[in-house]
Design a protein that fits this description.
Keywords: Repeat, WD repeat. This is Serine/threonine-protein phosphatase 2A 55 kDa regulatory subunit B. InterPro entries: PP2A_PR55, PP2A_PR55_CS, WD40/YVTN_repeat-like_dom_sf, WD40_repeat_dom_sf, WD40_rpt. With 452 residues, this protein is mainly beta. It is 4% helix and 42% strand. The chain has 3 helices and 32 strands. The strands form 9 sheets. It has a 4-stranded antiparallel sheet with strand order 1-32-31-30, with no helix packed on it. Strand 31 and strand 32 form a beta hairpin. The longest helix is centred in the C-terminal third of the chain and has 6 residues. The radius of gyration is 24 Å and the shape is globular. The two termini are 14 Å apart. The relative contact order is 0.15.
Amino acid sequence: MAGGGDIQWCFSQVKGTVEEDVTEDGDSWEYADIISTVEFNQDGELLATGDKGGRVVIFKREPESKQSLPRRGEYNVYSTFQSHEPEFDYLKSLEIEEKINKIRWLPRQNAAYSLLSTNDKTVKLWKITERDKRPDGFNLKDDEGRIKSPNDITALRVPFFKPTELIVEASPRRVYANAHTYHINSISLNSDHETFLSGDDLRINLWHLEITDRSFNIVDIKPANMEELTEVITAAEFHPSMCNVFVYSSSKGTIRLCDMRQRALCDQHAKMFEEPEDPSNRSFFSEIISSISDVKFSHSGRYLISRDYLSVKVWDLQMDSRPIETYQVHEYLRSKLCSLYENDCIFDKFECAWNGNDTQIMTGSYNNFFRMFDRNTKRDLTLEASRENTKPKCILKPRRVCTGGKRKKDEISVDSLDFNKKILHTAWHPTENIIAVAATNNLYIFQDKDKV
């Protein structure tokens, strides 16, 4: 896998409705179509998206594109199903939105695929199976399934399987409900492949995949008096190889690493990762922009990345005093924080992603820009997900934002950025340079030019 500075990214595919369907307020005419999560499975053959309408759409890589030389990253719709429906909590007079907050794939154990999906309150385990044969030649039933009269049975037939058109079925295997008072923001599968965690604003619960009627509370930061509440949990994730270790981030800009071997209720963390604030940058917005919106372990398990409003930070698990690397995503917005606060954009929650060998980091920005950082060369790249670049194999041109003075030809003024167009959700193929970027109601797939 090449370094980010050595890659020329080109357009591969776009899935979804056209961008002209987006209103001036940034909402799609079909609110339900807005993508709310993106996730590759373990081998990258499947790509799942969840939307605000509670649907899960699974894309499967075309066998021809994988076997061709060079390999191509072409995905087509494999299965679509309704994962969650809108509900109403009558005790609290509260509507429960159907929006899919997170999707996590389970390692494949047999011919079927399995994934976890969650909305604000309920986690579900789905099984996705293929069927291309059906039984035929019954003795007691006719071709339409009706029971035959005994007088019509004149000979004994051996039933057989008859080839049919491929049918992909999604069926709910488990429903993990009634365990969260607040909105679920994270689910993470443990490396033991038997348990997973679900985290909301104040609590994190541990589940066994086979048990749906109970879970164990492993983190609870709810104060006795809610008026004393100073922070909330924003993201949580298990370590990729140590089944006893997990981390969770907070709205105060801290990351806590917990070890379940120390105690059942992990209220006392084993380590806390926090960067001291620079007093010269202190402002009214400091606490808001320091809130961590996403945290991810590297595939090796040695590092963490965290995303706050303006930057991505890389942490070494062996050093909790400060990050080992800090990458500015859109520092040019620091002077715009007041207007971003007024239009609520300052509360946007951007995700981040590692590439397969932990040498590059990707995260989103505004104006449908997304950023890539190469940890080896320290080079960074700004690209745009736009339908103007959707010609086959079209190479993406790096974009630059002009913060003042005379604007060059290829630059865009910071005052011209469209804050209604934002890249919140991204995913990177686990072994290849193929990326998926969600831009409102469109899913863009890009890949390394040299692999096209």
